[in-house]
Amino acid sequence: MFARLLLLFIIVPIIELALFILLGNRLGLSTTLLVIIITAVIGAALTKSQGAKAIHNFQSAMAQGKMPHKEIVDGLLILVAGAVLLTPGFLTDTIGFLLLFAPTRAVIRSLVTGKLADKVNVSVGGNPLDPELEPRREDEATHAKPATGKVIDI
Q1: CB under 8 Å to 117, separation ≥6 — which residues?
Q2: By residue range, what is the domain housing residue 17?
Q3: Percent residues over pLDDT 70 in the chain
Q4: Does residue 104 belong to any structural domain of this protein?
Q5: Tell me, what's the pLDDT at 127?
């Protein structure tokens, strides 16, 4: 995992630098800087609106008693989109806009949830530190045996 992150932190800046040089030569410095500023403003506005929509969807799912897993992943992807849009560059802006665009975000969400499905355990019930709060299974509730043993009074 460390090697992948290291490679990512080396390759992405090299690609961004190459894109800046290529586009800077074709468009000129002022136009290139203007494009960077415009994408930052548009990205910030889209991140804000998509984030607000994700929060609304999360609250709606909770109000309906649904598990808001899709909404949580969408919120995280929008957060990542905002972070990469803050990074100046054409590659990172492209990734950020793809994460903000709902259809591509849905594809990415399905890929992410597919990878994480085997690694996440969800349990609903009581507190594992307090067995009194544990929900009883049906067979335990109907066939409970009285406690036996010695009582030690201190």
Answers
A1: none
A2: 12-116
A3: 79
A4: yes
A5: 58
97 within domain boundaries: yes
| Cα dihedral value 129, 132, 138, 143, nearest 10 | 120
**Single pTM value for the model:** 0.70
Each residue of 58-81: pLDDT tens digit? 999 999 988 888 899 999 999 999
The chain-wide mean pLDDT, for the chain, equals 84
User: Does any domain span residue 135?
Assistant: no
Q: In whole angstroms, give the CA distance from residue 15 to residue 67.
A: 39
Look at residue 131 and tell me if it is in a domain. Answer: no
SS (H, E, C) 17-59: HHHHHHHHHHHCHHHHHHHHHHHHHHHHHHHHHHHHHHHHHHH
In angstroms, the Cα distances linking 39 to 21, 78, 85 are 18, 16, 8
Total domain count, the chain: 1
Eight-class DSSP state of 132: G
99: amino acid identity, one letter = L
Gap between the Cα atoms of 71 and 88, Å rounded: 27
Place of tokens 């409970």: 144
Neighbour count for residue 50 (Cβ, 10 Å)? 21
